[in-house]
């Protein structure tokens, strides 16, 4: 039997003798990912390969790649191996490395259950943003302890089609700029990153959320994710939105002493975000595995040559 996790050189490998790479496809509120199981960290995933795999017309298609590696086998996660057996080596659709992906963690945990590595209940997942605690419920929802938000004081102004809004700087292990608008259509097409200033606030780029009220403790959002353009959902973005909304609404749990929960509508569904008085944030939403397959090494070689 061929080894589905065998490393291949996408340019020089002989496609006749190389084993295909196993993959799965999953999504969390329609934020979709290509999942590449690779327990021993044997598969090299350069940016060009990731971008080609995520191409929705010429590849498999996805908002990013979830590279599934044992923490002890990856240099970025070895220090976390004592807390979390599995490391989510996450890549954006353009191949760039990202610190964290909230929807990705839920799908990652669902994959671990699907593959028989874990059972329903509480597990830990290592990410570049630290170890995340995850609860796999029997009803299909997944709750992730997202940690605490950081709120740098330096915000930015975001501009689209002549309209400008102040954006709150929220860091969820990755950077976010949260702008409250009257109408989500004002965000424009979000094919490209909306301009913001001063640009120096986010030297490595930023995820930009546009937020409109839908009711008490209920908002809707659209997001431009760095490295991926507009996506159907962003888990860390939904958390950042809830944090910013709580401060705007005078409901900061650290001040009130009471947890606050926001329902956040994204294009692909709904997420529920709860922030506790100690600053810990929990995100709950669905995660689904929809398909399994193998990447043809001959295609990969031709696609990246």
Keywords:
lysine biosynthesis; Diaminopimelate Epimerase, Chain A, domain 1; disordered N terminus; 15% helix; globular; 2 domains; 18-stranded mixed beta sheet; 305 residues; alpha+beta; diaminopimelate epimerase activity
Describe this structure in words.
The chain has 305 residues and is of the alpha+beta class. The protein folds into two domains: 21-140 and 288-304, Diaminopimelate Epimerase, Chain A, domain 1 (Roll); 156-285, Diaminopimelate Epimerase, Chain A, domain 1 (Roll), CATH 3.10.310. 15% of the residues lie in helices and 40% in strands. It has five helices and 18 strands. The chain has an 18-stranded mixed beta sheet that branches. A hairpin with a 4-residue loop joins strand 16 and strand 17 (280-286). The longest helix is centred in the last third of the chain and has 14 residues, at 235-248. The radius of gyration is 19 Å and the shape is globular. The two termini are 28 Å apart. Mean pLDDT is 92; it is low at 1-17.
Strand portion: 35-45%
Q: What would you call the shape?
A: globular
Q: Strand pairing plus helix content: what structural class?
A: alpha+beta
Low-confidence stretches: 1-17
The average pLDDT is 92
Quick one: how many beta strands? Answer: 18
CATH top level class name of the largest domain: Alpha Beta
CATH architectural name of the largest domain:
Roll
Main β-sheet description: 18 strands, mixed
Helix content: 10-25%
Q: Taking Cα atoms only, what radius of gyration do you get, to the nearest Å?
A: 19 Å
Fourth CATH level, the homologous superfamily of the largest domain: Diaminopimelate Epimerase, Chain A, domain 1
Number of domain modules: 2
Active site: 101, 234
Binding site for substrate: 31, 92, 102-103, 174, 207, 225-226, 235-236
Main location: cytoplasm
Enzyme class: isomerase
């Amino acid at each position: 039997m061929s080894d589905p996790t065998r490393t291949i050189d996408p340019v020089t490998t002989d496609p006749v003798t190389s084993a295909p790479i196993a993959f799965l496809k999953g999504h969390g509120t329609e934020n979709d990912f290509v999942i590449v199981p690779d327990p021993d960290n044997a598969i090299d995933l350069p940016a060009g390969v990731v971008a080609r795999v995520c191409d929705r017309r010429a590849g498999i298609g996805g908002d990013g790649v979830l590279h599934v590696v044992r923490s002890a086998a990856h240099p970025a996660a070895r220090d976390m191996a004592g807390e979390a057996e599995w490391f989510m080596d996450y890549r954006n659709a353009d191949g760039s490395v990202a610190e964290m992906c909230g929807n990705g963690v839920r799908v990652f945990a669902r994959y671990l259950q699907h593959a028989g590595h874990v059972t329903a209940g509480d597990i830990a997942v290592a990410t570049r943003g630290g170890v995340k605690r995850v609860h796999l419920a029997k009803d299909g929802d997944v709750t992730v302890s997202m940690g605490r938000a950081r709120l740098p004081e330096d915000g930015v102004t975001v501009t689209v089609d002549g309209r400008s809004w102040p954006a709150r700087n929220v860091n969820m292990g990755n950077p976010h700029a949260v702008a409250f608008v009257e109408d989500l259509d004002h965000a424009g097409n979000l094919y490209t990153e909306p301009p913001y200033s001063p640009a120096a606030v986010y030297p490595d780029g930023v995820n930009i959320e546009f937020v409109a009220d839908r009711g008490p403790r209920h908002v809707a959002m659209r997001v431009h994710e760095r490295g991926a353009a507009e996506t159907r959902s962003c888990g860390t973005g939904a958390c950042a939105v809830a944090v910013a909304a709580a401060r705007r609404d005078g409901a900061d749990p650290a001040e009130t002493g009471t947890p606050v929960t926001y329902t956040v509508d994204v294009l692909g569904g709904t997420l529920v975000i709860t922030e506790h008085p100690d600053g810990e944030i929990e995100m709950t939403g669905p995660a689904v595995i929809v398909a399994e397959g193998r990447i043809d090494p001959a295609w990969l070689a031709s696609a990246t040559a």
